[in-house]
């Protein structure tokens, strides 16, 4: 994956970085929020894009 398109997804409850993903930053300007499974919280939580 290209480093320019790489983003980190952080759990909104425990604030741990659990996922890495990519996005097209030219098309999508705002930050992504996805509902993913957190292995630390052991449930589905909202994961937000971090810097």
From TrEMBL:
Pfam family name, one: Ribosomal_L33
Matches recorded under InterPro entries: Ribosomal_bL33 (IPR001705), Ribosomal_bL33_sf (IPR038584), Ribosomal_zn-bd (IPR011332)
UniProt keywords, alphabetically: Ribonucleoprotein, Ribosomal protein
UniProt KW Ribonucleoprotein keyword: yes
Gene Ontology molecular function, alphabetical: structural constituent of ribosome
Ribosomal protein among keywords: yes
Recorded GO CC terms: cytoplasm; ribonucleoprotein complex; ribosome
GO biological process, one term: translation
Family classification: Belongs to the bacterial ribosomal protein bL33 family.
Protein name, entry field: Large ribosomal subunit protein bL33
Organism: Candidatus Kerfeldbacteria bacterium CG_4_10_14_0_8_um_filter_42_10
The organism's taxonomic lineage, starting at the top: Bacteria, Candidatus Kerfeldiibacteriota
Gene behind this protein: rpmG
């Amino acid at each position: 994956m290209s480093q320019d398109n790489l983003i980190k997804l952080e759990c909104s409850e425990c604030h741990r970085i659990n996922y890495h993903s990519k996005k097209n930053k030219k098309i999508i300007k705002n930050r992504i929020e996805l509902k993913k499974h957190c292995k630390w919280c052991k449930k589905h939580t909202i994961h937000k894009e971090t810097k």
